[in-house]
Amino acid sequence: MWSPRRAAVGLLLSLCVSMAVGGAVTAGSPSNPVVSGGECVRLFHSTGDVGCYSLDKKGTQARLVNVATQEDLNGLALKETSILVLPETLLTKENVAKFNQQYTKGLMVYPISGNSTTYNLDALNPQGKGTIDGALNPTFGNYSWNPVGRDLMGMSFAYPVIQVQSLDAAQQFIKLASKNDGVPTDSSFGVVYRGMMQYYFGPAKMDSPTCLGFTNIKGQRSPKCYPVGGQSSWGVKGDLTSSKPVIIAMAPMDTNAFSHVYAPGANAGASGLVALLATADALKSVPNSSLGKTIVFAAFQAESYGFVGSRRFLADLTAKGNNCGRIITATTPFGESFCGNPVTSSMAISGLSLSKIESAIAIDQVGLSGTTNFSIHTNPNAQSSGIETLVDSMVKSSSAKGSVSKSSSGSMPPGPIISFMNDKEYGNASLTAAVLAGYDTSFPPSYHSRFDLNTSLDASAITKAAQVLAESLFTLAVGNTSSTASAPTVNATLVSEMLICITTNWNCPLMRDYSTPFVNSMIDYLTLTSTSWPSSMQPVSLYSSVYSGNRLPTAVLSDGSGVAIVPDSVTWSSSNTLNLFPNAYETFTRSFLASALGDAQSNPTTCKLTKDCVGTNQECVYPAVCKTRAAYFHDAYSPGLAKEKVAGLFKVVNANMPLWTEPNWDTIGTFVYPDPRSTIGYVALGSGVLCLILGYLLASRFLAHFRKQKLL
Ligand SMILES: *[C@@H]1O[C@H](CO)[C@@H](O)[C@H](O)[C@H]1NC(C)=O
Ligand SMILES: *[C@@H]1O[C@H](CO)[C@@H](O)[C@H](O)[C@H]1NC(C)=O
Ligand SMILES: *[C@@H]1O[C@H](CO)[C@@H](O)[C@H](O)[C@H]1NC(C)=O
Ligand SMILES: *[C@@H]1O[C@H](CO)[C@@H](O)[C@H](O)[C@H]1NC(C)=O
Ligand SMILES: *[C@@H]1O[C@H](CO)[C@@H](O)[C@H](O)[C@H]1NC(C)=O
Ligand SMILES: *[C@@H]1O[C@H](CO)[C@@H](O)[C@H](O)[C@H]1NC(C)=O
Ligand SMILES: *[C@@H]1O[C@H](CO)[C@@H](O)[C@H](O)[C@H]1NC(C)=O
Ligand SMILES: *[C@@H]1O[C@H](CO)[C@@H](O)[C@H](O)[C@H]1NC(C)=O
């Protein structure tokens, strides 16, 4: 989890910098600036780790070495511990293998070509064959969706790597590193520029079962990591209690990248979600009564790490009793009942079953500028008649106009729909399933890279894809019923506003407006301060982050304790509350579905809070009206984990699954400083050097002071 405290350290250091200039260490700027950028963070899985780390709790100090070209790299002969400053183009598996194991203590990589890329750092078969998630994608994992992938994201680097913000920001470090050129290592005279990289994420050998099961010296459980996850959202157009077949439309909410700070996921994450929500909105014009089929919309969280959003959903969908040991009937802002063992926010999933799902459509990466044509990837193991109907509903939709066609890939891309077809786990191999995508045989190079930015997207491409999906769902669900409902139209203004919001500011008016009725209801229900608001990311990253804190539903009992399993001895009463306050992105997603899919009463009543709505199963939704409750959160964490009573403790029930976790950490960061070494003769340095040393010591103490949690 990213900590803003690095910025504070930078500020402290800069105080000294101004004084140091007077010391004239060199003609340049003898400062010790903090390197702003995105760090590669370490994650654990069931048998090991990926990402980057340092084993030195106090941070690693090493000489900066400028590696500007492949020739520099080929001729590199390190003689002391070093941090390589290099363009990201040189970050390849072959080059990484060449780095001196003993002396390479960190990398500072910088972009050289603005905001576009011809490659990314993910695997050739993302979440497929040869990756940690490969076992979860047994049928389609051998297809190389990402041919320009450099396959570095599944590696474990025994040194920190930071992606510097930009080429401009990197210039000063390149300059300092090149000043070290030719400065001998053993010199007792002259300044050498070093970097300080503090990235301690636990000992060298670590995995998720170990860090989740960690106990402290008193023998008490004290996990040093949390599961990657969060809250998915899903909603229903129609009525799950009817026997009508179900069509499910889905999209992933999250993305992945080498650094979770630089995981914008505008195309890989946001575009599909925006299209899905805009489709749900467009179907508002179709009355529930004219549907021959029920439509479920699902936005799955944390798909990039073990497909956990879709897999948890399916695990609970297919399990006897929906994996719930105790249903508690009580009115909360989430509905009329929930599960007490383990605590979940809703039991709505009990109305759905896999056999009711007649077809599944996913929407994926539909926003790239210049996307005029869309491809439909279909399940090759499904019955052809079902697939034909599904494909026709899109290809022959009136907005398609020849721009939508069946893909030639013959495979299915990684995403939530893979879980629905994986019969080795919870899915149905012959499910009638298709993905509407902006790519045909391979993903764009920006996939899972820091350059998957909104600036390379075109909202009109998303609008078009959403329009095709909306017409398809309309055809499939309304079909030849005698309905006179008119075909849905996607709101292009809504699409572009939503895209800007999700990719830049989760506190934007659109997201706030949709979320307000739910947030106000929670503030009232949990008696929170009136200004409480779900958490946001700045800058926005669509990395899902971890399933913990307010993103993990708990029952708060009358003694104030929050538990993940309500003890049998506890009779639920109104002095207990159900606590779940997902982040602003997740809160918005569910709130939006609730507003788009719920049925308004014939005389709509206005409301401020859900409790203002009369009648059962009503929810107060945007724009402050009561509607039939239609949308729910669903936990996204690995089905290989089970909750224990104490919130935040998990036991491993299946260690053969990836079980992604992120270690707890607080202060991490990189800064650069001039090391005067034993420059005794350099009396002239005087106070400048003293200040630098002081600054360095202060910074170390500052870093230590804020290390809230002692790590492993
Ligand atoms: C790249 O994108 C970032 C964020 O959108 C922006 O701040 C920056 O100016 C862009 N850089 C270039 C070279 O286009
Ligand atoms: C992937 O596996 C399927 C089924 O085993 C096979 O038909 C297909 O040719 C394989 N594709 C590749 C690219 O290896
Ligand atoms: C949908 O409409 C039917 C009647 O056509 C009604 O029975 C049902 O409650 C409605 N469902 C919702 C979720 O409003
Ligand atoms: C799997 O899907 C096929 C095609 O939709 C369907 O005929 C079959 O009944 C489904 N199997 C199960 C177990 O739901
Ligand atoms: C898009 O599809 C149309 C109609 O099939 C075709 O004429 C056109 O060349 C395609 N455009 C691209 C960029 O592939
Ligand atoms: C509706 O009925 C017409 C005429 O029977 C048929 O041609 C068409 O394919 C049907 N459409 C759907 C979606 O079933
Ligand atoms: C389209 O969306 C915008 C932005 O949310 C909204 O102001 C407008 O009323 C919507 N238009 C229609 C026709 O619903
Ligand atoms: C893209 O993101 C930038 C900030 O990163 C924001 O200022 C801009 O409005 C966004 N543009 C679009 C088209 O979403």
Q: Could you characterize the architecture of this molecule?
A:
By secondary structure, the protein is α/β, with parallel strands linked by helices. The chain has three domains: 4-28 and 690-708, no CATH class; 37-210, no CATH class; 229-659, Zn peptidases (Aminopeptidase). Helix content is 25%, strand content 20%. It has 14 helices and 30 strands. It has an eight-stranded mixed beta sheet with strand order 19-18-20-17-12-13-11-26. It has a seven-stranded mixed beta sheet with strand order 1-8-6-5-4-9-30, with helices on both faces. Residues 1-30 and 680-712 have low confidence and may be disordered. The structure holds 2-acetamido-2-deoxy-beta-D-glucopyranose (8 copies). One 2-acetamido-2-deoxy-beta-D-glucopyranose (NAG) binds at residues 238-239, 288-289, 599, 628, 630.
Q: How is the biggest beta sheet arranged?
A: 8 strands, mixed
How much beta, percentage-wise? 15-25%
Helix/strand-derived category reads alpha/beta
Small molecules bound = 2-acetamido-2-deoxy-beta-D-glucopyranose
Please, how many helices?
14
Distance between the ends: 16 Å
CATH superfamily of the largest domain: Zn peptidases
Number of strands: 30
Architecture per CATH nomenclature, i.e. the level-2 architecture of the largest domain: 3-Layer(aba) Sandwich
CATH class of the largest domain: Alpha Beta
> Within the CATH hierarchy, at the fold level, what is the topology of the largest domain?
Aminopeptidase
The Rg value, from CA coordinates, equals 27 Å
Give the proportion of residues in helices. Answer: 25-40%
Quaternary form? single chain
Count of structural domains: 3
Order of strands across the biggest sheet?
A: 19-18-20-17-12-13-11-26
Low-confidence stretches: 1-30, 680-712
**Average of pLDDT:** 90
GO biological process, one term: protein processing
Organism: Thraustotheca clavata
Main location: membrane
Pfam families: Ncstrn_small (PF18266), Nicastrin (PF05450)
